[in-house]
Amino acid sequence: MTAPNPQQRLQSLSEEYQKLQTDLQTQITSRQRLESQQQENLAVRKEFNTLSDDSTIYKLIGPVLLKQEKTEAESAVDGRLEFIEKEIKRVEQLISDMQEQSEGKKMEVYQLQMKMQEAK
């Protein structure tokens, strides 16, 4: 089997780079969504701190509001915050890895372009 010619290799590398960029953008959007959810839950936690222990809290489940104990509601919010923080860390690691891969691909494309220029 013959090796692909430089033009085909360049096309392939460019497509891989573009896919990495698209995937990277998807992960960045995901991180932004998680950060937004984190801020919402932090606002809820802050609101809970202003309530007295005997305050009535309702939870929306489908079209119905159900009464919920304050400690149960706080526990649910704390659990969500913990989950969101772990997800943010996971996504940030993915973003970091993808940025590294993307830079590597970019360098490969650049080096191949330089070789092709020299060969002309």
Describe this structure as you would to a colleague.
It is a single chain. This protein is mostly helical. Helix content is 79%, strand content 8%. The protein is built from two helices and two strands. The protein has helices at 6-50, 70-119, and strands at residues 57-61, 64-68. The protein has a two-stranded antiparallel ribbon with strand order 1-2. Helix 1 packs antiparallel against helix 2. 2% of the residues are buried.
Number of helices: 2
The SSE order reads: HEEH
Query: Which oligomerization state do the chains in this entry correspond to?
Result: single chain
Derived from helix and strand composition plus strand pairing, the structural class reads mainly alpha
From the alpha-carbon coordinates, what is the Rg to the nearest angstrom?
A: 25 Å
Per DSSP, what share of the residues sits in E-state strands of 2 or more residues? 5-15%
Order of strands side by side in the largest beta sheet?
1-2
Terminal Cα span = 25 Å
In round numbers, the mean pLDDT is 93
The total count of strands amounts to 2
Rough shape?
Answer: rod-shaped
List low-pLDDT spans: none
Percent helix: over 70%
> What does the largest sheet look like?
2 strands, antiparallel
Short description:
The protein is mainly α and 120 residues long. The chain has helices at 6-50, 70-119, and strands spanning 57-61, 64-68. Helix 1 packs antiparallel against helix 2 (70-119).
